[in-house]
Amino acid sequence: MAAAALTRTALPGEPELQRFAHMAAHLLVERQARAPGARAVARQVGVGLQHLDHRDYQPGDEVRHIDWRQTARRLKPVLRRFEAESAGDWTLLLDASSSMALPGPAPKWQRAVTLAAALAFALLQLGHRVGLLAYGTRVLAECPRGRGQHQYAAIARRLGALRPAPAGEASDLAACANHLRGAASVFVLSDFLADDEMRRDLLALRQRCTVLHALQLSDAADTDLGAVGDVDLVDVETGARLPWHASDGARARAAAERATMTHRLRSFCTRSGMVFSDWDGVQPWQHALLGHLVHARNPG
Amino acid sequence: MVTPLWLLGLLGLPLIRWLHRGGRHRRVLPVAFLALWQGSAAAPPAAGQRQPPDPAWRRRALLAALLLVALAGPQWPQQHTPVTLWVDDSISMLTHEAQGTRLSLGLAQARALLAGVDRAEVEVRTLGDPWHRLGGPGADSLDDTTRNTLLAGAGRREPAAPPAALLRGDRAHWLLTDGADAGVFDWPGRRTPDRLIQVGSEHRNVGLQRLSVRRHPDDRDRFELQLRLNNGGDSAETRTVLVIGDHGELARSRQTLAAGSAAEVLLPIPAVARVHARLLPGDALAEDDEIVLDLAPLRQRRVAIDARCAAALQAAVATHPALRAVPAGSGDLDLRLDCGSGAAAPAPATLRVLADRLPARPAGPLRWSSAVAEADRLRLDADTVQFSARLQAAATDQVLLAAGDLPLIVGRASPSGPNRLIETSLDFGAMAGAGGPAVPLLLNTLVERLLGAPLLDPVVVTDRGPSAARVRPLPPPPAAAPAAPVARARRHYDATNLLLLAAAVVLLWEIAALARQWRRLAV
Q1: In chain B, which residue's Cα lies nearest the Cα of A239?
Q2: Nearest CA in chain A to B41
Q3: Residue B42: closest CA among chain A residues belongs to which residue?
Q4: How far is B35 from chain A (nearest CA, A)?
Q5: B513 CB-near residues (< 8 Å, 6+ apart)
Q6: Residue range A73-97: average pLDDT?
Q7: How far does B506 lie from chain A, in Å, by closest CA?
Q8: Measured between beta carbons, which residues in chain B are less than 8 angstroms from residue A223?
Q9: CA B360 to chain CA centroid, nearest Å
């Protein structure tokens, strides 16, 4: 690919992306077991749809995917699910809210852009169609799904041009739901800092895609302000203020609250069949992304 | 208070406190998600409970209060004793007594007397220049600076009684004098000094009152010197007048003067640049025993004459008492008389006589320019006036004499003041042929204009006045007896500057606090 010429300095270089794509290839083309007792089958690029398993019908599902035989057998609508094609459709959802723009030892926005670029590069290498949606309170930027080197160049250009607003931009993941056309694998990159950790929005997205990945970017700076004395805390997204007195106890309580939110989100994703992982920026991005894909392959 | 209405502004100080009711300015920290910190929020003030205002309000209220009070113009009264010390600065005050000059002795006495006055506020004025205040207002304005100014400036002016406008009734007026001039006691409105400090006991003095020098009317290389001596003492005196020139003694004369009399001495001396007259032997007042006079205005101007000039013109220069004809090539010239040969050396001023055609009589009447003084406008006989060149005058030139529209004498414009080049087309030979004094008088007019100074009959003089030599103290008038009670007065001191200074300090304090806060927020 001619990615080097188009990639901004903020994005990883092509050799680094190539190495990652090579390592992640088997995780991105192999069958993803969804049903108990299923076995992994190596698939080749270009092979057609393959039945994977069944699940109960939910409002909004494609009617033509109802397995009438199983429905008659179980006396309730049962949906036939298909294994994702090795050359499938992927949509990357990138949180561009103001909370992602906060500076810190490991800036979340920089990490999210790196992950999105690497993931797009690896998927496009394998022949997938990849699209990008950046969202705040609305969809801020969109790069429609496409294939090939030109698509990576387009995504890289868009990633390089994106800058989250320093204040006033909240996160509304549900705003992306209408932009997900057709069944696709969706990969959400966000800090999930919201009242319900965006669980409701994730659930809405889950109805519109085949597989939903949620990779949380956490940052120590979110819970360690380094301040002393009395300060006024201001939420960068809502502008709400809170008088606060800096103390070690307060910092510990904030860290505990953040851990609780992560735990709640992880449990929710597990229950809802979503793949969730948390990256705090300590380990390299390759490890974080490969770990997430491994976890997607082996949820247990 | 000058404008107490400004104090109403103090009622607005509670407004400053109200504006700071939000409490201390706190540092603002942006966070990604406020809910993370809800559990450790600082206890907000309870409903209805008032939060203490930002302490900065006190500083700002203080600044506003200081400015308001300063605008009101606060003043406070203070008891003091205003004294005006009138100092006789005539030359007789420089008479040497046993312990020093009269002026220094009198000032020492005045200082001692003022030291005994409670909160004295002294202003010092001289009788020679009463409108110029030398010292004060202040508790000790008779300081060394004032004293030195008085000693350096004494003897230059004739003393007179203080003007009525300066004899204010709210001040005590002290007089320091030797009483040699009775006029210093003649105060307007029959007023008398509140305290008289009279110094001096010396009563013998002969002084040079006047020295004047002029050119000798018969000998252009000599001067006539006239001296006037005055015996200001009360006994007969004999003095020798010594006149010294540039290179030594020029003349001397011995004079005996009765008490209070004057004598005049007339001495011919050779022409010198400076003359120094001195009385021998000296006496208690040395300042009036000699006079030095600069005789530069009397010197003869060096004129280089072009050989082609008319004989009448050359004769006029030769007979002029203030001009000395020198060869054309001589240096250090004052004037150049150029008649077309161009042989003379450069000079600061040039009189150029043009002749390039046959002499002709001008058609119009002769008219002098208004720039020429009325006394200098010669009445020239139109029948004798002829011109031998046609002059052109530029816009910046000055036509001094014209016949109709024909310029005859033109002053050429010069950046250095008056015309330093005058051109004329007059035929001096024809004018001389008709007889009369026209040529020398016209030459004198033009040369005086070129040199910018009168040349005929100058007198250099210096005159000290008839009372300069009087040193004998006169008894004061009876009403001027000392020990008049000294009035005390209330003086209002303006505190505005003090308050403005305090406000500036508070303002700097506020700026420093704001800078500290700004730096804290920028971290």
Answers
A1: B30
A2: A244
A3: A244
A4: 8
A5: B56, B59
A6: 82
A7: 27
A8: 36
A9: 54
Cβ neighbours for A17, distance < 8 A, ≥ 6 positions apart: A3, A117, A118, A121, A122
Q: Does A12 score more than 80 pLDDT?
A: yes
Long-range contact set of residues B42-50: C-beta below 8 Å, sequence gap at least 24 = B42/A230, B42/A243, B42/A244, B42/A245, B44/A243, B50/B21
Q: How confident is the model at residue A47 (pLDDT cuts 50, 70, 90)?
A: very low
- Say if B27 is an interface residue toward chain A (CB within 8 Å): yes
pLDDT at B137: 58
Mean per-residue pLDDT of chain A: 83
- By Cβ distance, the residue of B24, B31, B40 closest to A235 is B31
How far is the C-alpha of A92 from the C-alpha of A135, rounded, in Å?
11
For the stretch B7-25, pLDDT in tens is 999 999 999 988 887 666 6
- A193 touches B: beta carbon within 8 Å: yes
Which residues, 6 or more positions from A13, have their beta carbon under 8 angstroms from its beta carbon? A4, A7
Q: Report whether pLDDT(A33) > 70.
A: no
Report ipTM (2 d.p.). 0.78
Span B124-178, pLDDT tens digits: 999 988 998 886 555 455 777 888 888 888 877 788 889 988 888 888 899 999 8
Of A241, A243, A254, the CB nearest to B36: A254
pLDDT confidence of residue A5: 37
Cis before B478? omega within 30: no
Query: What is the band of A115 on the pLDDT scale with cuts at 50, 70, 90?
Result: very high
pLDDT recorded at residue B136: 59
3-class SS of residue A73: helix
Question: In terms of residues, how long is chain A?
Answer: 300
B29–chain A nearest CA distance, Å:
5
Query: Which tokens in the block code for residue B504?
Result: 């500036």
Kindly give, in sequence order, each residue whose CB lies less than 8 Å from that of residue A99, ignoring residues fewer than 6 positions away. A108, A171, A191, A193, A236, A237, B32, B33
Q: List, for residues A254-264, the tens digit of each pLDDT value.
A: 899 999 999 99
Residues on chain A touching B40 (C-beta within 8 angstroms):
244-245, 247, 249-250, 253-254
B523 touches chain A (CB under 8 A): no
The full 3-state SS of B453-499, as one line of letters, equals CCCCCCEEEEECCCCCCCCCCCCCCHHHCCCCCCCCEEEEEECHHHH
Question: Which of A229, A230, A233 lies closest to B34 in CB terms?
Answer: A233
| Interface contact flag, A235 B34, Cβ < 8 Å | yes
Spans of chain B below 50 pLDDT: 46-49, 139, 481-483
- What pLDDT score does B64 carry? 94
Contacts of B28 in chain A (CB under 8 A): 231-232, 234, 241
The answer for B 36-55 residues in CB contact with A (under 8 A) is 36-42, 44
Identify the three-state secondary structure at position A266.
helix
Q: Residue length, chain B?
A: 523
* Selected residue of A234, A238, A242 to mutate for chain B interface (largest B Cβ count, 10 A): A242
Q: A242, B41: Cβ pair inside 8 Å? A: yes
> A168 CA to chain B: closest CA distance, Å?
11
Contact assessment for residue B243 and residue B250, using Cβ atoms and an 8 Å cutoff: yes
Mean pLDDT in residue range A184-193: 92
Determine whether the interchain pair B28/A231 forms a contact, defined as Cβ–Cβ distance below 8 Å: yes
pLDDT value of position B343: 62
Task: Report CA dihedral (A237, A240, A246, A250) to the nearest 10 degrees.
Answer: -80
What integer is the mean pLDDT of A142-168? 91
Pairwise CA distance, residues B492 & B422, whole Å: 66
C-alpha gyration radius of chain B: 40
